[in-house]
Design goal:
Structural class: mainly beta
Distance between the termini: 43 Å
Radius of gyration: 18 Å
Order of helices and strands: EEEEEEEEEEEEEHH
Number of strands: 13
Number of helices: 2
Helix content: under 10%
């Protein structure tokens, strides 16, 4: 799996204030810090070369959101919905993404590290060169998604849904895949041998193999 490209950000950005997003707003070469912006409602918002530190966008509806060369740290994106979003060269660290919904989105060169991404929805989205590291992804959905060079490292994917997903050059390292739906869709993924052996019960269940007790 090929690693994501990092965002291209200058060492310093001008700090900007913001009260609310409007349709088709564009913010570029800016730093947004300590902003409370829950429940935003806007279409076509674009953030280009922007750093967001401790910004709360929880519960927002931002259809066709565009993020390019963006770094998010300590943010709250819980229950944010951004259908058809375009996300490229983005890093998200130590943030809350519980219930985030990015259906029919395109994610390219994205790193998500140390975040809660449980109950998230990536259904029918395209993910290329995306890394989830040390994340909680319980009950998240990748239903019918296309994943190319996506890496899951030390993630909790218990009860996640991969039904109908297409995986190419993807890898899972040190992940919890218990009670995962759509195990058959992991065909073609790469895993460490210790993980494969440790989850023998998952593969047996997916294949309908009954486990016998020792005589």
């Amino acid at each position: 799996a090929r690693p994501p490209q990092p965002p291209q950000l200058p060492a310093e950005l001008a700090r900007s204030g913001l009260d609310a997003f409007a349709h088709d707003d564009r913010y570029a070469d800016a730093e947004l810090v300590d902003l409370e912006l829950p429940g935003q409602q806007a279409r076509g918002v674009s953030l280009d070369t922007v750093r967001l530190d401790r910004v709360d966008l929880s519960g927002s509806r931002l259809e066709h959101l565009s993020l390019s060369d963006v770094r998010i740290s300590g943010g709250n994106l819980a229950n944010l919905e951004a259908r058809g979003a375009s996300v490229a060269r983005v890093e998200i660290a130590s943030s809350r993404l519980t219930g985030i919904a990015l259906p029919e989105a395109g994610l390219r060169d994205v790193t998500v590290e140390g975040c809660r991404v449980d109950l998230a929805a990536f259904g029918f989205s395209r993910l290329a060169r995306v890394t989830f590291a040390d994340c909680v992804l319980t009950q998240s959905s990748f239903l019918e998604a296309q994943l190319d060079s996506v890496r899951f490292h030390a993630c909790d994917l218990s009860e996640a849904d991969f039904r109908g997903a297409s995986l190419r050059r993807c890898e899972f390292r040190g992940c919890d895949l218990s009670r995962l739906a759509g195990v058959q869709s992991l065909r073609g993924a790469a895993m460490e041998w210790s993980d494969i052996v440790g989850m023998a019960d998952v593969w047996a269940s997916a294949l309908g193999i009954e486990i016998l007790d020792r005589e």
